[in-house]
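anyone seen this seq b4? input:
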Amino acid sequence: MISDPYQVLGVPPTASDQEIAKAYRKLARKYHPDLHPGDEEAAKKMSEINAAYEQIKNMRKSQNSMENEKFLQIWNPIKAEASLTIRRIKEIRTHRFRKCPNCHTMLRLPRKTGKHTVKCPCCSHKFKVRVWF
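predicted toks r here
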C-alpha cells in the first residue's frame, strides 16, 4: 500500500475522477513497458503508478458506497411511504371504493373480480357490487 497515492500520480487529493484518470493515462504512456523494453526502472515505476491508481479508485469507491448507504437509510422510509400513498391513490382512481346507497359512507371493495355482496359497517345495509378489475 502506497503512503500517498496522489503524490505518485501528481494530483491533489481534491482532484476529480477525470483529472486522476487523465494523470494516470499520461504517466502510463510515459512509463509503459512496451515503450521501454528491458528497462527495470520504467517497469517498477509503472507498477507503482498502477498500484496508486487502484488504491485511489478503491478509496473513492468505498467512500461512494458509504454515501450511498447514508442516502438509502434516508430514502427507503420515504420511498416506502410514497409507494403506500401511490397505492392508495391508485385504489381510489380504479374505483376500489363505493358509497353505501343508504348512508353514503365510503366502503372498500373486495380485491377479487366478480359480483360481491357488501355490508356497510355504519348502517348494516347490504348491497351488491361488481368488481371488474
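The mean pLDDT is 82. Residues 40-93 form the longest helix (54 residues). kinda curious what u guys think
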